[in-house]
Amino acid sequence: MILKRIFAALLAIGLAAAPSAAQPAGPDADTIIARHIEARGGAAALRAIRSLAFTQGRYSEPGYESDGKAEMRLMRPYHKLVGNPSLNPDFLEGYDGEAWEWFKDPGIAIRTTGAASEAARHYADVEGPFLDYRAKGSTVELLGTEAIGGKPAYKVRLTMMDGYTTDSFFDPKTYMLVASRHTAAVHAFGAPVSSQTRFADFRKVAGVLFPFRSEEVEIATGKVLNAMQWGRIEANAAIPAAWFSPPEFTRTPMQTFIEQLYRQRSDPKAMLWTYHAFRRANPDVDTQDAAQVAGFQSLKMGAVDSAIALLERNAKDNPKGANAAFGLGRAYAQAGRVAEARAEFQRALALDAKHERAAKALADLPK
Q: Is 253-364 assigned to CATH 1.25.40.10?
């Protein structure tokens, strides 16, 4: 989820915000957008950018700061990559017409759907969301003005063709983007948080202004959620097209098994059939962690019933597995089955008193 919030901070797209004042006399939404595009460097300069490479990124949030080596790339027509395949990373995430995630451990590539897919495809345009917005199937609406940092700003709502809405705030003098707001979960199963992202450190790249820094703050509390500082943004660098799709690799039988379970998440009967068939064919292979991974990823994609069915079978087959109990408890919690989740977290702690994730999950359950 951290990377998905980087997407939002970088390209300045947010979800619905609080009510604003009535629309004042002045420029309409199309005029504001046209002036914003011109302020950035103009439509011709934006269209001349074929690719963007963001490197030397330092991401931070309370209690954590990255090593300053974050990378992200965009390339026309709609390709995106977080990470650098040549550096042997632990994780990669991208979009090549479908959203995907790749995990070095256990070595699987999955195609994502739902919120994860939305976060990827909504931030894949090199030029941002406003240039040629009508051709992209979007609409815009000026909602008036609102104070950002004590100064008035135009508030423009853009609605994309899938219904996704974003609110952006533009300086009435410079027409540069000053902030965006959105509501999204910080982590995979966290509660939605309404936040405001401010943009700074604008520099020209290929004649176009880009914000090199962003900071996201929770609206209700003023707490800083995260910040991102890019060290370098390069335009029109050569990027291998293959980078924007999941890495090619030879899968082990276990990696194939995990991906098969995940792909069948919309069909719990088929998923359980594959699970049973693999275990019957490989009676000496420990599948506890594999089922955990497939169940967790399915849960993230909203396939709650399938995840529960798989993780219930996993827990039954591994009665002494603390991780199996924790995974099932997490699925029950996601489904709102609090009493059953509590029982599984307690069982995980009975099997392993030092199971920190189970202890935290138990403490986080509604009383």
A: yes
